[in-house]
């Protein structure tokens, strides 16, 4: 009989998990607590608790050729950077093409995932779910956790003295939907990640004044790079990665910072951080310098305290404020996994960011629990391709056991390179991590063989953008 796999969540990672299970002849059942697919990318005016949520205008920061699933290219007529509605359209096309919806149980939440008594020999799990107030239990041979890391809004209210007496209103970026409620208001946006900058820019067209408060500043990348090509399409290549590996990090950072400052001087605009550009997760926005130079967005330091009607910043300035948007990120947790994994300070010990290292059998994997310097969808897909082959067993791609018996977990990236921050605990470089997974699976492109057999393709693979299609050139699942 086919091995049964439980998949938790029907977002981007859950959909490709279904597809990969079917490819390997496994029998998947996907549990989705909401009524539809799409996860983070499905806009909802009033999202349910514990579900990731975006605002109406969100456009993705990765371009279509770099973010698509490797065996299902995004249509030619779709824009390079897609609005969330277009991303949903693509997901629906993918689900329909591979007939995935019949394997999804909507309106079903996972209450508990626990080892069976004979787990050491069987590797099986008992999964308890709830739908319409009724609970039921079922046994599965493996579990894929695809619930992502944008579920619990991180709201550090205790870090802002006086907020309890502030008479305006405040909200987390998760609850921000559109700029209309802020018409004519003075608004502070706290946080300079992608959501913080996007929301500040959007509000600046509606609000009376927007203040962008940041503790450490940020390097701001732009979607449109040289000659009008998408930034990731131009810079995420094997050749660029080789240069980055050969050069000291400070030299690589110097060249990229020089290019970013040529567009606008980060010091002049009050944005230059103490850290180098390669020490942070990319912040991407094309419009911020225009809004700053026109005075619609004012960059401010961290907030020292709130009064009833104003915010006092660490440089001593005071501004009247009507509303505060906390763009302070998310934390993740897995309450349904009874003691199998522990999340401490937004960190979780997983081999290759996937497998808990102390399970007797490798039958539990986390998909998409990662923050790449690139697109998440191809990473989730490659993780699923590897995990499902491990589940199917005996896997043909080495090693058959996905992790060595050692107490230390090999990180995919030197953690010390990144600024200490909640958003950097699951950070990886795109190509090195994809290649690590590809080596486990046996699908990493062999440049030497390509140069001998197809020199033109070899040049594209080495010097062109590192698209997901590169991981379909050889090995299991090759085109």
Automatic annotation (TrEMBL):
The kind of enzyme this is, by top-level EC class, is: oxidoreductase
Among Gene3D superfamilies, the record links this protein to: FAD/NAD(P)-binding domain
Q: Name one GO cellular component term.
A: endoplasmic reticulum membrane
Q: What is its EC number?
A: 1.14.13.148, 1.14.13.8, 1.6.3.1
Under catalytic activity, the entry for this protein gives: hypotaurine + NADH + O2 + H(+) = taurine + NAD(+) + H2O; N,N-dimethylaniline + NADPH + O2 + H(+) = N,N-dimethylaniline N-oxide + NADP(+) + H2O; trimethylamine + NADPH + O2 = trimethylamine N-oxide + NADP(+) + H2O; hypotaurine + NADPH + O2 + H(+) = taurine + NADP(+) + H2O
Check the record and name the InterPro entries matching this protein. FAD/NAD-bd_sf, Flavin_mOase, Flavin_mOase-like, Flavin_mOase_5, FMO-like
Gene Ontology biological-process annotations: lipid metabolic process
Q: How does it sit in the membrane?
A: Single-pass membrane protein
In which family does this protein belong, per the annotation?
A: Belongs to the FMO family.
| Descriptive protein name | Flavin-containing monooxygenase 1
Upper taxonomic lineage: Eukaryota, Metazoa, Chordata, Craniata, Vertebrata
């Amino acid at each position: 009989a086919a091995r049964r796999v439980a998949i938790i969540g029907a977002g981007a990672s859950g959909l490709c998990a279904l597809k990969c299970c079917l490819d390997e002849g496994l029998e998947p059942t996907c549990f989705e607590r909401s009524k539809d697919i799409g996860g983070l990318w499905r806009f909802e005016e009033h999202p349910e608790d514990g579900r990731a949520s975006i605002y109406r205008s969100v456009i993705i920061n990765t371009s279509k050729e770099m973010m698509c699933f490797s065996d299902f290219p995004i249509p030619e007529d779709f824009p390079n950077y897609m609005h969330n509605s277009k991303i949903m359209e693509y997901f629906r096309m993918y689900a329909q093409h591979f007939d995935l919806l019949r394997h999804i149980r909507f309106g079903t939440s996972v209450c508990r995932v626990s080892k069976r008594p004979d787990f050491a020999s069987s590797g099986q799990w008992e999964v308890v779910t709830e739908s319409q107030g009724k609970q039921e239990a079922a046994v599965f041979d493996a579990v894929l956790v695809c619930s992502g890391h944008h579920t619990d809004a991180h709201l550090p209210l205790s870090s802002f003295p006086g907020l309890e007496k502030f008479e305006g209103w405040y909200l987390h970026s998760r609850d921000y939907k559109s700029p209309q409620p802020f018409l004519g208001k003075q608004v502070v946006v706290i946080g300079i990640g992608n959501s913080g900058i996007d929301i500040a820019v959007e509000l600046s067209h509606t609000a009376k004044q927007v203040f962008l408060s940041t503790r450490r500043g940020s390097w701001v990348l732009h979607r449109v790079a040289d000659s009008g090509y998408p930034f990731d399409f131009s810079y995420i290549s094997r050749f660029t990665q080789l240069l980055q590996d050969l050069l000291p990090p400070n030299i690589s950072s110097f060249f990229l910072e020089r290019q970013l400052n040529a567009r606008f001087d980060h010091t002049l605009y009050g944005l230059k951080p103490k850290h180098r550009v390669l020490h942070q997760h990319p912040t991407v926005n094309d419009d911020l310098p225009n809004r700053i130079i026109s005075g619609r967005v004012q960059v401010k330091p961290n907030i020292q305290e709130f009064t009833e009607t104003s915010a006092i910043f660490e440089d001593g300035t005071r501004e009247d404020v009507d509303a505060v948007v906390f763009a302070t990120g998310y934390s993740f947790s897995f309450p349904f996994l009874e003691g199998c994994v522990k999340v401490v300070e937004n960190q979780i010990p997983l081999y290759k960011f996937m497998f808990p290292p102390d399970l007797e059998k490798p039958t539990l994997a986390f998909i998409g629990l990662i923050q790449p310097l690139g697109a998440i969808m191809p990473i989730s897909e490659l993780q699923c391709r590897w995990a499902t082959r491990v589940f199917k067993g005996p896997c043909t791609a080495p090693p058959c056991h996905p992790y060595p018996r050692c107490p230390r977990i090999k990180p995919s990236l030197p953690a010390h390179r990144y600024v200490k921050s909640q958003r950097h605990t699951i950070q990886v470089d795109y190509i090195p991590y994809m290649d690590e997974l590809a080596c486990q699976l046996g699908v990493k492109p062999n440049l030497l063989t390509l140069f001998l057999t197809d020199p033109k393709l070899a040049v594209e693979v080495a010097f062109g953008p590192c698209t997901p299609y590169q991981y379909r050139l050889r090995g299991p699942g090759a085109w």
